[in-house]
Fold this protein.
Amino acid sequence: MVFRNADLPELFHRSDAVAIARQREAVRDTRAQLLLLVLGAGFAALPGGWKLGSTFQLAHALSALAYAGVLLATFRASRRRAKSHWQLNRSAAEFIKSMCWRYSVHGTPFEGGPDHAGSEDLFLTRLEQGLAELRKVGWQDPRTADASLSSAPLVTEPMRMLRDKPFGARKETYVRDRLIEQRNWYHRRTVVSRHATTFWSVTIALLTLLALLFGILQTFSLAQSAQMAGVLSAAAAACVAWSEIRRHQPLIAAHSLVEEDLKTMHTAMETMTEEANWPAAVYETERICSPQHTDWLVRQRG
């Protein structure tokens, strides 16, 4: 049996879609703020100021507009709180996904028993308890604004089908469609973060070297380059800020550790895990995959 994200309940898909949209908005706002700061410094450094008439300087006017744009973007970001909503909806989506997998393959605390009603009641209770905790810290439950979503089932038919499968089929499906899939995802993210770290490190180094060059020229009065050095410094600082916001370096270490832990769990499941200790193995795998575990690793490595 194949079990994919499409087989998860609609509440997962809605939370996942909101998380993606909010992430893009948060990244876009931050990128705009940094870019406008660099543009403001660049326009202010232009020689002559593009004077129009006797007093008006177009370059400085554009610089002022860029700084005003930074203030507007900051105000908009503080009002919409895209980053907070992104993280809350991502936590909700991953929590729903993890609980659905645990229920479908008999992971703790949903192990064993043919009693669908009892198992589903326990699943729904634990799921709502977790979502209630997220609502306490600001998660906006999409079911409150969408009546059709409120009536959508939280236990899908594919989840019931997988739960009815014998242990061997459940184990094979979980290892292939959950554990290996997550391992591959963390591996891809590690590669992406390494490439991004290299790119931004090289960019920051080049901008800093150019600023250093102009500073040396200014020291020996070989060029009037103080303003250009300031622009390059602002660009380098923006690159540093962007790299820190994206957390590429700590994510490399965190994702590598999670990938290694999942590799260990994969080996254990294939060689040593029997039906008696299967529920605990699933629970541990889901703990490793959780965003909270990754965030903890990022904080330790940061």
